[in-house]
Design goal:
The complex is a heterodimer. By secondary structure, chain A is mainly alpha-helical. In chain A, 61% of the residues lie in helices and 2% in strands. Chain A has a two-stranded antiparallel sheet with strand order 1-2. In chain A, a hairpin with a 2-residue loop joins strand 1 and strand 2. By secondary structure, chain B is of the alpha+beta class. Chain B contains 11 helices and 12 strands. In chain B, the strands form 4 sheets. A 5-stranded antiparallel beta sheet of chain B has the order 1-2-3-5-4. In chain B, strands 6-8-9 form a 3-stranded antiparallel beta sheet. Chain B starts with 9 loop residues before the first helix and ends in an 18-residue tail after the last strand. Classes of the chains: A mainly alpha, B alpha+beta. Chains A and B meet through helix 1, helix 2, helix 5, helix 8 and helix 10 of A and helix 1, strand 1, helix 2, strand 4 and helix 4 of B.
């Protein structure tokens, strides 16, 4: 994953992290003169004072900021790269099967992949309503699904099952777990293995970074700010809150979260809900004109999404889904020769590793004495005791 | 051997690359849910602990304690929080690569050959509070603080570990489970079934740890949940309505009798008055009035002589060889490391409690319970 440079993204609305409590208090006490703090006291305490986290905001320390924020160009490049790598690999798989068999296949490009993924991002809401999950689960699952397809292609993994797995995982990571049986039995034509088989892959694709900073929380924060502005009537801003919430929901269908910090997305949503009030708020916060720019860009993104046909292009998605049947990676379809070959290769590699390990253990002399005896005879069937029975460190993988 | 040339997805490749950065050398512990290996980062030779979580056995996939631990440690980077260096998966296991830490505060407290100076205790307290203040500032509750989960690095740094019960602060109005925090360190409001709380629970645990450092034995070792309440009231006096408004209407409130208040000074004879003052603030009955980690770091105790010992000059854990000749006993370093890193049941060592009676065993770890199932109901 691309690491973004700090200067690429400016989280304009993030609060400064307070200084270390201890150093702060030492300073306060000295200036107040209330309590004598000898110079050497501070010096001795100092080495314990945290140095490296003092300058970063909590947001800048988050995995979302460090690994999941992009410029528009980087994002496009990432998606194109994922798509092109996949097409090359799938072509190779077809060619291995039969020379020339990949000719004439209309592969799906990065934009088409994105359109299909978006359809399934949108479907998450309805499922969350069904399970009565909070907005946190919904927002997190959507983020997981979008992040997954920055590194994977729909030609390898169809978004339907990935969506189900992402949602199941998001319920766990946001503390609202549900049993797998209860989950899959509520969703038609879904078996537990559809969800479970992909869980590791999804977790890996997320780099095991489960924490997500959702924009809807920032909406709440700004709403609290708005109430403390002069001349705001609670009943007037109530509607604005609901409108902003709706806009944040729309923003989840866009790339906004890869491009802007949650606070700017929330501010963009308020900008659409009430430009005047948001301007007032920005003024109170001391935002400069250039700091308002990203907020307006977010607002434009949401607006484009709200235009007729802006949300999901059903015609295009249907066409993509139809073509997807013809250009799926054969290595990922159980039963095909390509799939079997790949499984066999993986199996062989694992066997080789096991053999190596066994050899190493024998070399180390750990297998000299087998307390279970050399052979076990059960009736007529002569069974050899597995040499590592009971001794294995359990590290077979 | 799988290599970079074996055809695979970029995600699989990345995973393999992470896995191949480390070697597993020796198994140092095994619990019901994880195996811990001592290993090295090949490029640097740095020692690491690899905690292999067996996921295959769970029918609901990745289990909650693994999810929590990974989620929070990925975000928390602080000298007083254990560092998660990498995560990778193998066929049916999840591997967490953690910094290798030699001992923990429980080992230190139990080793009666170690003499603690007041300055040493101050140093451990300041490090605990710094780590915890950082968690709370990140809106994360630890929910299982105890000496056994405060690990000690070879340079003396103390690190909060075991985030298997951690969670974010709940949104206002959402319930959380009260079945968290090992019993002896659990605050009275959780024992009474309180479902809405914030950092105060962790602060009570810190108070119990502070007391244990001074006493060199657990301060409030209850034998059951009800006995825990009794033990607390016996030590600190039954709270008055003024001291803790409304506590008798908590869901699981039970009356355990009236105990008089005895001054902390009677038990903590060697402590400074500032230490006693801070301890009383950690152990305030009303969670709303209990001191926060940030406030505690600003408490006069830390600005009063003696100065906190620099971590490099603190007493060191005496490490028993990780390959003992004899079968491992409960008191050696290997077991302690294992306990701190796995979900294994706590040891059954006999210890004398602060109030004189023999304590049979440490209360069981909570992590196997799927404690948050009903949190959001």
């Amino acid at each position: 994953m691309n690491h973004i440079k700090q200067e690429d993204i400016k989280p304009a609305l993030v609060q400064e992290e307070p200084k270390d409590a201890l150093s702060l208090s030492a300073a306060t006490l000295t200036t107040n003169g209330k309590k004598e703090v000898k110079k050497e006291d501070v010096d001795v305490v100092k080495p314990l004072v945290r140095e490296s986290d003092g300058r970063k905001s909590l947001w800048q320390g988050s995995s979302q900021y460090r690994h999941w924020m992009f410029s528009q160009e980087m994002l496009l490049k990432q998606r194109t790269h994922t798509n092109e790598t996949a097409v090359t690999a799938i072509k190779r798989a077809y060619e291995a099967e039969e020379t020339g068999s990949s000719n004439g296949i209309e592969f799906i490009n990065a934009q088409e992949e994105y359109a299909l993924v978006k359809l399934y991002v949108d479907k998450i809401s309805a499922l969350c309503d069904h399970f009565r999950w909070t907005e946190e689960v919904e927002a997190t699952a959507m983020t997981y699904l979008k992040r997954f397809y920055l590194k994977n292609t729909v030609m390898d993994w169809h978004p339907k099952n990935v969506m189900l797995t992402a949602l199941f995982l998001a319920a766990k990571t946001t503390n609202q777990p549900i049993s797998l049986d209860a989950y899959t039995s509520a969703i038609p034509k879904t078996s537990p293995s559809d969800v479970l088989d992909l869980e590791f892959l999804v977790a890996q694709s997320l780099s095991f970074e489960f924490a997500v900073w959702p924009a809807f929380r920032a909406v709440w924060g700004i709403w609290l700010d708005l109430q403390s502005l002069p001349d705001t009537r609670p009943e007037a801003i109530k509607d604005i809150l609901n409108a902003a919430r709706e806009h944040v929901r729309t923003a989840r269908l866009t790339d906004a979260e890869f491009l802007y910090p949650p606070s700017q997305i929330a501010a963009g949503a308020f900008w659409l809900a009430s430009e005047t009030l948001t301007e007032q708020w920005a003024k109170a916060k001391g935002l400069t004109a250039s700091e308002l720019e990203p907020i307006k860009e977010v607002a434009r993104m949401i607006e484009r999404e709200n235009e007729p046909g802006g949300r999901i292009n059903i015609e295009l998605v249907r066409d993509v889904d139809r073509r997807l049947r013809l250009c799926k990676n054969p290595e990922k379809i159980p039963g095909t020769n390509a799939y079997k070959r790949k499984q066999a290769a993986a199996e062989a590699a694992a066997n080789e590793k096991r053999a190596k390990k066994l050899a190493a253990e024998q070399q180390a002399g750990s297998m000299d004495v087998d307390v279970f005896g050399e052979k076990i005879f059960i009736g007529d069937v002569k069974q050899e005791a597995k040499p590592d029975l009971g001794f294995s460190s359990g590290d077979e993988d | 051997m799988l290599t970079e040339d074996t055809p695979m997805d970029s995600v699989e490749k990345e995973n393999l690359r992470r896995a191949q950065k480390y070697t597993k050398d020796a198994k140092v512990g095994e619990g019901a849910y994880a195996v811990v290996y001592k290993g090295r980062e090949i490029a640097t030779g740095r020692q690491v602990a690899i905690k292999k979580i067996k996921v295959g056995q769970f029918k609901d996939g990745l289990d909650m304690s693994a999810v929590r631990e990974v989620k929070y440690l990925q975000e928390l980077h602080h000298p007083n929080v254990i560092e998660l260096l990498d995560v990778f998966s193998s066929k049916t296991n999840l591997n967490l690569v953690l910094e290798f830490l030699d001992g923990d505060l429980e080992m230190m407290i139990n080793d009666k050959t170690q003499k603690f100076q007041a300055a040493d205790m101050k140093s451990w307290m300041v490090m605990t509070l710094r780590g915890l203040e950082f968690c709370h500032r990140n809106h994360i509750l630890h929910r299982d603080l105890k000496p056994n989960n405060l690990l000690l690095a070879s340079d003396g740094q103390l690190k909060l570990a075991d985030f298997g019960l951690a969670r974010d602060f709940a949104d206002p109005g959402l319930k959380m489970t009260c079945q968290v925090i090992t019993r002896w360190y659990r605050p009275p409001e959780l024992l009474f079934g309180c479902r809405y709380y914030s950092g105060g629970g962790d602060m009570w645990s810190v108070g119990c740890i502070f007391a244990e450092l001074m006493l060199r034995t657990p301060y409030l070792p209850g034998e059951s949940d009800v006995d825990q309440i009794k033990t607390i009231f016996r030590a600190l006096g039954t709270p008055t309505e003024e001291e803790w408004p409304g506590y008798t209407s908590l869901p699981d409130y039970v009356s355990v009798g009236h105990f008089p208040k005895t001054p902390l000074r009677d038990l903590f004879t060697a402590a400074s008055s500032e230490a006693i003052n801070l301890l009383a603030k950690f152990l305030a009955y009303d969670p709303m009035r209990r001191i926060s980690a940030r406030e505690a770091l600003n408490h006069a105790y830390f600005f009063q002589a003696p100065n906190a010992t620099h971590h490099s000059r603190l007493p060191k854990c005496k490490i028993v060889s990780t390959e003992p000749e004899e079968p491992p006993t409960h008191d050696n370093a290997k077991m302690d490391l294992m306990k701190s890193l796995t979900a294994g049941p706590s040891s059954g060592r006999k210890r004398k409690s602060s109030i004189g009676h023999e304590v049979v065993s440490r209360p069981p770890a909570l992590r196997h319970m799927d404690v948050d199932k009903h949190e959001s109901l």
